[in-house]
Amino acid sequence: MAGRLIYLIGPSGSGKDSLLDAARARLAERGCRIVRRVITRSPESVGEAAQGVSPGQFAVMDAEGAFALSWQANGLSYGIPREIDDWLAAGEDVLVNGSRGHLAQTRLRYPRLLVLLLTVEQAVLRQRLLARGRESLADIDERLARNARFSESLASAPGVFLLDNSGPLERTVERLLGCLDGQSACA
């Protein structure tokens, strides 16, 4: 039986990387792989443990079919290595840090997709983005407005499970594991 693709999405600053780091060992115990994305961001950048490549390297990798999924967002290019298809075919569950804007295309390629939308209260999100110090106030305000639009449309979409990460991270880890174990209420 094929594994399932678990597609974690949410706004920048919602805590996707923190959640994945906190849940990593428990996910591995369940046989779930967490995919390392390829991003056109400097490897020295603070944030997720992604493979940083130049825009030129990314373009070559994409043209050579290195990615099962790829997209552009926030001035960067993102790729999910094509090895996920082998892992899924071998019956392994695979969790990727995906893109809300690329969800429709991902669903076309992976119809059995499990979508987890990590949410966070806007005030908490604002504080996290400010503390990160990567963006101007105008950029942060734009991200918050985009988040409000995405969250509104995705929260009511069929097959999207909500995980609120406004509180303690361990509670969010438990909710994540509950979703993967088939509990109906993730939030």
Automatic annotation (TrEMBL):
Pathway: Metabolic intermediate biosynthesis; 5-phospho-alpha-D-ribose 1-diphosphate biosynthesis; 5-phospho-alpha-D-ribose 1-diphosphate from D-ribose 5-phosphate (route II): step 3/3. InterPro entries: GK/Ca_channel_bsu, P-loop_NTPase, PhnN. Residues 2-184 form the Guanylate kinase/L-type calcium channel beta subunit domain. ATP binds at residues 10-17. One of its GO terms (biological process) is organic phosphonate metabolic process. Its EC number is 2.7.4.23. GO terms for molecular function: ATP binding; ribose 1,5-bisphosphate phosphokinase activity. It catalyses: alpha-D-ribose 1,5-bisphosphate + ATP = 5-phospho-alpha-D-ribose 1-diphosphate + ADP. Belongs to the ribose 1,5-bisphosphokinase family. This is Ribose 1,5-bisphosphate phosphokinase PhnN. It comes from Pseudomonas karstica. The gene is phnN.
